[in-house]
Amino acid sequence: MLGPAVAVLAAAASVRAASCPDYSSFSMSPQGNASLGPLGLPFMRPAEECRTFKSPAVEQVIADMKAKLKNPDLARLFENTFPNTLDTTVKYFNKEQNLAFIITGDITAQWLRDTANQFAHYQALLPKDPELKALVKAVINNEARYIKQYPYCGAFQPPPESGLSPTHNDWNDGVTINPPINTNIVFECKYELDSLCGFLKLSRAYFQNTNDSSFINDDWNAAVKQIFKVIEEQSQPTFDEDFNLLSYYSWSGGNGALSPMVNNHGNNEPNAYTGMVKTHHRPSDDLATFAFLTPANAMLSVELKHLADVFNKAKVQEDVADNARALSKRISDAVWKHTVVDNIFAYETNGFGGRYVMDDANVPSLLSLPYLGFLDKKHPAYVATRKLLLSRGNPYYSRGKQFFGVGGPHVDAWDPWPMSLISSIYGTDNDKEITDMLETILNNTAGLGLIHESVNIYNNHQYTRSWFAWANSYFAEMVLDLAERKPHLILKDSKPYRLQD
Ligand SMILES: *[C@@H]1O[C@H](CO)[C@@H](O)[C@H](O)[C@H]1NC(C)=O
Ligand SMILES: *[C@@H]1O[C@H](CO)[C@@H](O)[C@H](O)[C@H]1NC(C)=O
Ligand SMILES: *[C@@H]1O[C@H](CO)[C@@H](O)[C@H](O)[C@H]1NC(C)=O
């Protein structure tokens, strides 16, 4: 039976749910009053009583940045985007259970990749806000439980403790997956190497900013063990020496399912051994053309090194740390050896000489290699690849009168993503390029003051996903990076602003 205090809480929660608008529709039309710049961007935060998590440290950053930013439209876009994950996506949080369920925005599921990015720009605030710190730790713990059971899957249902019902994913109907899944736990089981990297990034960023190793519990250790198992399985060629098929994961739609049939009985295109690790789908959740996705391997190489540092600093599992360092080097060597020709990185390769030169907007992408920490933005191979990717040499680059950038087959080649411009800003020190890309993002929110998934080059009021928390977080993270790295471009006083100070 519920005690009286619990009953009151439950009643308060249902009142909130009843009077708070659904943010999917809320974010489709201008809400609060307009900013004072030429764009007049609306205030788009939900009413205070409808916000899903409140952080004094986050509010302080918003107040600081509003006072400092030169451009009032940029200040408004920052004010809307920086808190978006906390304002709208914390569907469940229980500190005692150490569990939190974070949705992506318009889809009620927790993606391993999205959460790592949704929280990336809050990590430096954790020492200042114990509740926020507890929230991030709870996100890590929830994901450790998922990965322990389903290391090949990337998107999940609410934890049973939350009392929230699982939602049905139509795209999963009729899909044959091996190993099989339980759809009460898994929302979608596309194997995307970078999902596992996202979990590692979320964990190590928490540690780097707090020195708190208490997230390392039995579930977390089991999850990491599973990640090493996946790395081992997905490093194998399609056939062994006797042409036995080495298949540890397969996925195929077809037969009337919304999802497409995949060649080779769901195993996709064959691959040779390279030292890199395969993926099945891309960070966009689209099927990969070739198995070795360069940016995901670059990210894995970086995250394995960080993982080793965490183990060494926390003085646990030093043997695993050595293994992680060795794997990191093997993967990075293979990226340089197998994907780069004449200073140009291929997006995907198959180990037989097959290369696909392109980029896809989702991070990890080739444009985001410096953001990921894989190389310096001045590295000649990055400079040459970036130039090619922001030109007609990249099949998924397009440019209209108002908007340009890199898209992907997830939407189509003429609907580039603001996210690709954010990655490009991280990839240059050129003030003019930065300003041009920043203005391009700012001028193309369809007057809604939020970052969308894609924007149409023929009609910049046509966009996808009104509520996409990761894109909002990534934008705010980039603005904070500029506030520290290039303050003269955006801040009134031209002095570096850092969250840690
Ligand atoms: C509109 O702007 C005023 C003054 O800038 C502010 O006090 C008020 O809260 C704003 N209202 C909304 C709904 O954003
Ligand atoms: C974490 O520990 C390092 C020393 O190992 C120290 O320099 C740093 O300030 C600590 N950070 C926090 C947030 O306590
Ligand atoms: C963005 O819009 C502003 C104001 O309308 C305009 O002055 C500027 O040239 C635009 N920038 C770009 C890169 O389109």
UniProtKB/TrEMBL annotation:
Q: Which SUPFAM superfamilies does this one have?
A: Six-hairpin glycosidases
MF-aspect GO terms = catalytic activity
Asked whether the UniProt record includes Membrane among its keywords, one would answer no
Keyword Signal tagged: yes
Recorded hits in Pfam families, A to Z, give: Glyco_hydro_125 (PF06824)
Which N-terminal stretch is annotated as signal sequence? 1-17
UniProt keywords, alphabetically: Signal
Q: Which GO terms describe its biological process?
A: carbohydrate metabolic process
Q: Which SMART domains match?
A: DUF1237 (SM01149)
PANTHER family xref list: MEIOTICALLY UP-REGULATED GENE 157 PROTEIN (PTHR31047)
Q: What is this protein called?
A: Glycoside hydrolase family 125 protein
